Amino acid sequence: MKILVCITNVPDTTAKISFTDSDTKFNKAGVTYICGPYDDYALSRAVELKEQSGGTVTVLNVGEADSEQVIRKCLAIGADDAIRVNCEPTDSYFVAQQIAAIASQENYDLILMGRESIDFNGGVVHGLVGEMLGIPSLSPVMKLDIDGKTARITREIEGGKEDIEATLPLVLGCQEPIAEWKIPNMRGIMTARTKPLKVVEPTGDDLTVTRKFELPAPKGAVKMIAADEVEKLVDLLKNEAKVL
Amino acid sequence: MLCLHNIFFISYIYVKLVCKQNNIQLLSAKLIISNHNSTMILTDNKASIKGGEFLIKDIDASQIFIPEEFSEEQKMIAQTCLDFVRTEVHPRLDEIDYAKDTSLMVSLMDKAGELGLLGTSIPEEYGGFGMNFNTSMLVAEACGQGHSFSVALSAHTGIGTLPILYYGNDAQKSKYLPKLATGEWKAAYCLTEPDSGSDANSGKTKAELTADGKHYIINGQKMWITNGGFADIYIVFAKIENDKNLTAFIVEKDFGGITMNEEERKMGIKGSSTRQIFFNDCKVPVENLLFTREGGFKIAVNILNIGRIKLASAVVGASKGVISQTVNYANERKQFGVSINNFGAIKHKLAEMIVRTYASESACYRAGQNIDDAIEDLLASGVEASQAKLKGVEQFAIECAIMKVHGSEVLDYVVDEGVQVYGGMGFSAEAPMDRAYRDARINRIFEGTNEINRLLSVGTIVKRAMKGELNLMPAAMAVGKEIMSIPDFNTEEEDGIFIAEKKVIKNMKKAILMIAGASLQKFMAKFEQEQEIIINLADMLIETYVAESTILRVEKLITTRGEEACSLQKDAALIYLHNAVEKLNNAGKSAITSFAEGDELRVMLMGLKRFSKIEPFNLKDARRRITQAAIEKNAYVF
What we know:
Chain A: This is Electron transfer flavoprotein subunit beta. Chain A: Belongs to the ETF beta-subunit/FixA family. Chain A: Keywords: Electron transport, Transport. Chain A: InterPro entries: ETF_a/b_N, ETF_b, ETF_beta_N, Rossmann-like_a/b/a_fold. Chain A: One of its GO terms (molecular function) is electron transfer activity. The complex is a heterodimer of chains A (about 240) and B (about 650). Helices cover about 25% and strands about 30% of the residues of chain A. Chain A is an alpha/beta fold and about 240 residues long. Chain A has one domain (about 1-215): 3-Layer(aba) Sandwich (Rossmann fold), CATH 3.40.50. In chain A, the strands form three sheets. In chain A, strands 11-10-9-12-8-1-6-7-13 form a nine-stranded mixed beta sheet, with helices on both faces. In chain A, α2 (about 70-75) links the parallel β6 and β7. Chain A is globular, with a radius of gyration of 21 Å. Chain B is an alpha+beta fold and about 650 residues long. Helix content of chain B is about 60%, strand content about 10%. Chain B has 22 helices and ten strands. Chain B has helices at about 5-20, 30-35, 70-90, 95, 105-115, 135-145, 150-160, 160-165, 170-180, 295-330, 345-380, 385-395, 395-420, 425, 430-440, 450-465, 470-485, 500-525, 530-560, 565-595, 600-610, 620-635; strands spanning about 185-190, 205-210, 215-225, 235-240, 245-250, 260, 275-285, 290, 335, 340. In chain B, β2 (about 205-210) and β3 form a beta hairpin. The two termini of chain B are about 50 Å apart. Residues about 1-45 of chain B have low confidence and may be disordered. The interface of A and B includes residues 192 and 193 of A.
């Protein structure tokens, strides 16, 4: 089985967010980057599937050279090789285009990725890739088993779960608990440096330009209203907070 | 008056003393005669760096390793250790400390083994990963936040495994190392006895050869045995018959004759298995004698050198963890309507915690790389791999002792202030400072108490000087001459980074040489009985080494990243240097007034004043800048 796992290189969840260039660019200074946590689960499941029934796992990242640290970690976790599309991942459509361009050259049985990245949280790339390749896409996938050409999937839906059977190839957006989160072991780390990492140039054009980023307004002070002053509370919610 | 011109004669007497103590032939005295006539060597940089030489050599920033130079791969290794500790150990800290048996610790060690954390130092041919010394220090640091687990891990990988790795024969290595690398077998180290602690060679455990010459029968009692409750093999030190020195044995649990007391009840590291172990007619095959008969003390000493510097990096890891928790608490805790991080009293504490940890880290990896370089040199000259590692570490025994003391005392400072910032919650067992405070304390005791390590650091320098290995005498004599002359008022400005600060460090070294020279001269053969003065000198030595390492680290960083990007690091280096000079001055005064009188006292105090001069600097503002960055990062800042 050939599996492609698409990963994002995103700021650590505790990173301090600020912008430069008149609020048009994210300020990378002092920020630690990690593999998107949902992508991490997708990769872990891919490695588990490979361990169970053989095959190959290729990691794909649309990103600049500074992504390679995270890509190496994915190789250390158990991917066999990696491809980096050398460009800034400007928007979901652009990223999906790059993934589809790579995927169309190879016959992957499964294209896995996180349900969403944790920087812009678009959550649409899997759907777009599926459409571009003309194959089904499903998200968010919490459980995945493969039996020959059939995938048995459990998907989270509003207020419950849905069990689905689908035929490969598929594009899946993953989330926990699809696999046990993996820490790369020493042997994996030491072999990662010898695994191939191919860099390719992007195709297509950026369709969007960021005009301005804005941080949410800081949380204001909490006003405590006595339990017997409901009218005052309603007044404040209507006229000050303007939420009613 | 100070009579440094007599120092040669006196040092000759001391050589006799030291050599007698160490069964060393008096050949080295000649070397001192030749050294006596050489010129002042405070600026000699040509030769490769040797252990203890920092005291008499100017080291260029480009010559030292800084942690920022760790490769992506090394960082990934460290991250694996951190991830393991955070996901497997931290959620179970209470469970580990109050476990009724050792099964949880054993399962954690097994998981660490699966990840390869137990085999980092073991060569690939024996199932490990053959990483260099500095990487193994980085692993120790990354695992250092694991409380009792860290202790179990370092006892296994350090004192448990290394005696076999470095002193075992091929058969012993092939039999034991692969199982120790994976964690299938866990190891413990049995040196200490009820009446034999710091004086390790006085142990009473006996080994007697059986009549058929095939086994040794070991009888005796060992205590404070880390991992004792679950170890599969024990490195046991015993005296064969009436030998003067110890011999080491590899003892498998299944050899029989091993019983143990219940787990010790301890102040901290409660989850670490600590047992008293009894060997009653324990039958050990003769092939399990490790190294040579009576070679055990050498093993113990050399393995402890490694243990010391690895402990130093482990406590840096622990300090960083505690600092991050404390910064986070200071950010969240509100009093008088604002976060307590707004208060200068708190800012001061946070900055000092950060600065001292940063400094300790700087010196730790500088020494680690020196060890790696020494090992490489020895390998290149044809020395066998394990011997090269041992000799490489032994060469830096002084730095190992210095860093053990510094690191463990920084951690104790950090946890103490951590408790203080947490306030009432710091005293509550519900918050993390309670465990951090209790667990930190042992680090000043094991791997040689900090007192032993202080004595050792100065003692080794003196010993090496007397043996002619460390060219101390000309430098000491030059200092003697300098304090009798008019001070240098040359204020000509030189170009470069930290020019003034490096001059301060040079002077700190002079202060040490001045006091060491004079006190040695005063007490001669009785010098080693003057432990108070030796400890004063050790404090001066420690502060000088660490301050220099920090200054050099930041200088190297500035040359690659530019001054603006390193402003916080520069603040840290300057704060540390100012603190170090003050400590040096206090220790120096204490030493001088302990033995000098009259004119000599006055001259030396003036010399000390001259050698501990430093330009004033607004330390409060510098501390506030560091704290502010930590507050914004909500963690240890570097």
